[in-house]
Amino acid sequence: MKEQVNPAESSGASERSGQKMGEARQRSKARLAEPVRYRVSMPEPHSHLFDVEASYPASDSPLTLAMPVWTPGSYLVREFSRNVQQAAAFDERARPLPIARLDKRTFSIESGGRAVRLRYRVYANELTVRTSHLDGSHGYLNGASIFLYSEALRGRQHRVAIDAPPGWRPFCALDRDGDELVAADYDELVDSPVEVSPQQPLELSVAGVPHQVVLWGEALLDASKLTSDLEKICEAAAQLFGGVPMKRYLFLIYLVDKGRGGLEHKASTSLVFPRFQLATPKGWEDFLTLAAHEYFHLWNVKRIKPRSLVPFNYAAENYTGLLWAFEGITSYYDNLLVRRAGLMPAGRYLVRLGEVVTSLQATPGRKMQTLLEASQMAWIKHYRPDENSPNSCISYYVKGEVVAALLDLEIRRATHERRSLDDVMRLLWARYGDERGVGEDGVEEVACEVGGPDLSAFFDRSLKSTEELDYSPLQHVGLELKFRVKESAADRGGTAARLKPAEMKPKGWLGATLKGSSTIGSVVAGSPAMEAGIYAEDEIVALDGFKVDGATLFSRCEERQPGEVVRVSLFRQDRLLELAVRLGNKPADAAYLARVEHPTDAQKAAYSAWLSAPWEEAASGS
Ligand SMILES: [Zn+2]
Prior knowledge:
With 622 residues, the chain is α+β, with helices and mostly antiparallel strands. The protein is 28% helix and 24% strand. The protein has 16 helices and 30 strands. The longest helix has 19 residues, at 223-241. It binds zinc ion (ZN). Zinc ion binds at residues 264, 293, 297, 327, 330.
């Protein structure tokens, strides 16, 4: 299915209508024309209010200004205009101009064609990579949630001056001209988050290009290890593509109590990560893969991008079926780059890949939703999960990463090790790095060009069907997929069983997940819990008359034999219920990658080429 609902593209204002050369000339003319200017101040950081004064040059009358409803890279309508307040418009002589709200995100100003000054405030009290934040310690500006724009002036240069509180200064990847940050157009402004803070940046260099790191939130880490590890990862990415595509780069890192995530930008990234986890080896590894993920996006999505998102439509959802490639392939490379940088042993790499396969195979929704649909419906599914999501959806990150790994191995097999997914990425880069956008079938076409036409069957099965994935490409590198029963609630798969076979007995199974300590999060379709009538949001209180919390409920059920009947007591909307549940047999859904028993020399060599490690160091799956 090809879906493309993009009003901005079909309107007369679209940059893509008309002849290409004319467009380029028009664009460069637009940039020479008078810019849109913003001055942002933060006189009362504790109020979480940014004061914005915007100047729009003379143009159409009335002047129509709008806030984006979403921020590129994060596919959810967030209605940023809900945080805008006290908007007032003036002409150049400071005389008030009539201003009206046309809809949830749009203002109309009776400007009479003259230049307009607009003052407004933006409430910013949400510290995520997709929103803006201001408090007594810093300001973080995510452009889409701060800057009102005019579609007619969108192609012009946009400039921002920041009035920082004493001791603070702005960090941003944009060019500077005096005290102004200079964006070539509104899209570049939105793509260039600004951190205003008293921090001293850390410096590193990749492929001769300066990179800065700005940290917020009491960093409990070794700064020299941070810069040295980031440098190695970025160098690994630069090596793949033959250099880096920007003249400077900025890592904005926010260390928080809970929550994690990253958002890619064209010359920067914002990362949020739980600070105390950084002190653990697993947490550090997770952090490095997050940084590698956003850095890989410099190529894969920020420049090689879906054509249906060119240009972005800031007014509504922008649909593409290609998120499996832009997020899935990027997720595959995030681990691989850390491996290539020498910061993750090959054995650990295989464990992590096994954990991703486990996540896929433990999700019943993989049998309901294709990878293509998961990409297309990101706006209402992936970004708006509910208790039915595990039963009805599959993540394009998770399945996309597994498909990318299998695709890489399949290309290596089909071309007798002459080509790999690296070559697909390089060809995509050569062909689409100019940002004109990849068509909905473009990634498949390029992969077939590199790996051979037989890949079309691979894509049909992996992207367009809910059939189980074909894991046979693992054989090419001497590995096979194995399954076992999870041994504890914390068991994420990826490794062979820790228990000896004699210690393993069949385990009783309910088939539900938790939200918090005792509340049912979701009920697995077709499970004993569903058959017995346990619902999401039920609050578990007892098993067979004895008090339990959620974790104890599951572990006690696992002590019982499949087929036994247990009595589960729970509150549902304040009412105490007791339900009889006939326990099932806990499924073997923990996956791990194990060596084949008698590997050939060719398999060993292919393994070494894939993970840059000798076969002898290959994980035996434990
Ligand atoms: Zn991503």
